[in-house]
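Dig into what follows:

_____
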Amino acid sequence: MSIATAPTTLPQANEPCWCGSGRKYKRCHKKLEGRVLQGEVSPMRLVPDHIARPPYADTGEYEPWEEDRIKSPEIIEAMRHSGKVASTVLREAGAMVAPGVTTEEIDTFVHERFIELGAYPSTINYHGYPKACCTSINEVICHGIPDSRPLIEGDICNIDVTGWIGGVHGDTNATFFVGEVDPESRQLVQVTEECMWLGIEAAKAGQPLSDIGRAIEDHAKKYKYGVVRAFVGHGIGEQFHTDIQVLHYYDSRSSVIMRPGMTFTVEPMITLGSINYKIWDDDWTAVTSDGKRTAQFEHTLLVTEGEPEVLTGGEGAASPFAPWNR
C-alpha cells in the first residue's frame, strides 16, 4: 500500500489537499501542519559479509551479558576509534539535511558510509530495527525510522548513528535545521545542546550519576522546557547498551558512583511542552503526546581522573565542543 507524504511546499488553505482526498487543504491536513506524517519504510538493507558483525545481527535477538563497567585500556582505545567513525558519519549525514531530502536517502548514506569505514551500522536488526540510523523530526522524541517523507523547510531533524567496529560501539546524535527554522525551535535546539554539554561536564570521577541529571534539568528549567524521563543515556562498550543508566533529570536514587574507565552516553531529550509520549504503530517511533517539538544531542564519553573524554566529540564532530568553549 502506498502512503501519501506531504510535499516540501504546502498548499494554501482553500487549495486542494496534497493527499489527494479531494477536500480543501484547510479541511483536511492543515490541522496537522507541522506534524510528522509517516512515510513508506523500505526493506532492511543487507550488510556485506566482509563486515564483522555484532552477535544480534543475523537473528535480531539480543542476549545481554555482564560487561565490566570499567573498561580495559584495549577496549578504551577501540572505543576511541569507533567513536571517531560514528562522529564522521554523523557530521557527513547532517550535511545532507535540506528541504526535499528524504530520511530514507540519509539512511542510505549512513548505511553505505559505515560500510566504507569498515563498521557495521549497530541499529540494523537490533531487536529487529530495520535501518542504519534513527531520524527523529519535530515532535519525534527518538527512534524515528527513516522513510519516504521529504524534509520540509522549517523542520528540525535529529540523526542518531551508532557503528560497531573493533568489537565495540560508538554512539552519537545531533539535531539539525532544515532550511530556515523559527526562533522558538532554534532556541530549543541550542538549549538542548547546552544541556548535553552541562551533563557531560558533570561526569566527574567519585560523583554520583545523579549529578548529570541535575545539571541537565537545572538548565532546561531556566527555559521552562521539559526533560523526557522515559528514555535515558546508557552504558556502552562491547554491547550497545550495558547496565549503566544515565538519567537526564535529577533523582537521588541514581547513586552509582562514576569511576575512571566507565563509558556511557549523555543524550538529553528536551521538549517545548509535555514530556509524555506516544508510540506509533511501528513499535519504535516515540512522539510527544501534545505534538510539540523536541530536540536531542548525544555523545559517548569516558570518565577519567580529570575532565571526561568525549569519544565522539572533538574537531569534525557535529557538536564538537561546548558552545561556550568554541
Notes: The helical segments are 73-94, 103-116, 183-201, 210-222.
